[in-house]
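User: structure tokens for this one?
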Amino acid sequence: MKIVNLDKPIWKQLGRMRVFIPSKQLISLALSPLFLVSLLSSCIFLQHKSIKPQIEIPDSWNAKIHASLKKEPLNERQLSTWWESFEDPVLSSLIREAMERNLDVKNALSKVREAEARKYLAKANFFPVVGLSGIFNISRRAAEKITKETYEAGFQSSWTADIFGGIRASYEASEFDLQSSKEYALGVLNNLVSQVVKTYIEIRTLQNRIKEAENSLKVQEEIYELIKKEYDVGLKDELTVNQILYTVESTRSSIPNLTSQLEEAKNRLSILLGRAPGNLSEEIDKPGPVPCPSVNPMLGIPGEVIKQRPDIRQVEKKLLAQISRVKAAYSELYPGLSLEGSFAFQSSSLGNLSASRAWTISFGPKILWTLFKGQAIRHNIELQKVIEEQYLIEYEKTIIKAIEEVENALTAYGNEHERLISLKKAAMAAEEAFSLSWKKYQAGLSAFSEVLENQKVFLSLRDQIIQREGALASNLVELIKALGGGSGQITDVSIKGGIE
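Assistant:
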């Protein structure tokens, strides 16, 4: 088996070439069937040295891992349907609808079908081309003034032999492009699921904040009515009434802002579901708790995450496709062989065409070797190699970015846990301080401003706790997404489309 080193210019491998005029015997030998069979059986393969990624993958995570997370190998089955661990039927229903109706997912699936169609086009180059031909010709000699009609009908065929693997390399590139498009669709789907869950968490968080503000407003209004009655009979001064009044109105003013944020979140969710804004079901309008997963994800190691994330696999397939294109570009340096044949009937009248004994048949090989094209072939090889290098850089960058996202998500999740614990402790102390200050005020031992201040701190901490519970759930979603959660939902996308 002969190996051609493509890193060395072919003219240096062939040595000095002398210009000569080939003899008839040499031309006959070059076109003889024996020579062509020998050329086909020589099996000259292209040797292209592709560049390998130069990235060191860490053996473990650098960030501090919270105790609630499991330091165990990744569970692909758990990650593929991770949202089910929230045990929220409304959320699961929304995700199923988003998978079916989201426009970004439909567009990604369309790109998959496009890539599959291109693969079939590349595959067609392996097979012969057969076609029918028909010719009608009128000729007339000016001296004889005789018009002659000629009719011809037949078929033609040709087949290109893939001696140097150019067709095979192009087909492999199309296969890798198809795989890359599927990984892209998986990435779009994973991103969609995480956006739906995070938006749903935001909606539940805002609903609970509104509910908490309305409850606080109700309590403050009751206190205001009590103080107002005491003021009317001269037991309280005007300062105390105004202090509780601005507290009531301040709480009331926060509700419209929260309501606006809630409507914006609902509209974003409608878009994710492929609906027009303002067209959500009544189930989402009913306030519910912020979803919390019953089982936290297993972290695995960085090497497992690289295999799990579709964005990394997508760039990897792009790189492999480009390596195949480099091989296809190298094949242009060598001669191409095709077998061509034709058969046709000829007649002077259309009616006698099928019965005509005048026919022609031709069959034989055709060799085409581009010897000069202004260095276009060489420049195309360099171009494809530069593109390969760019994909390699993108591949390395994507790996580094994926590790960074997991590290950041681990840090954010752990810190949010600690913050939530501190806020709950602070809220308990603030509630006790508010209760004590109210008792002291009723006993005449403290001013009403102290009661209002303690109440303000307590209500603020309650609101922060609701926000941080939502942020903790969102951070967990980001961590699952960074680990590659959701992969495997698109198992097969055919040219007819659809998710299986």
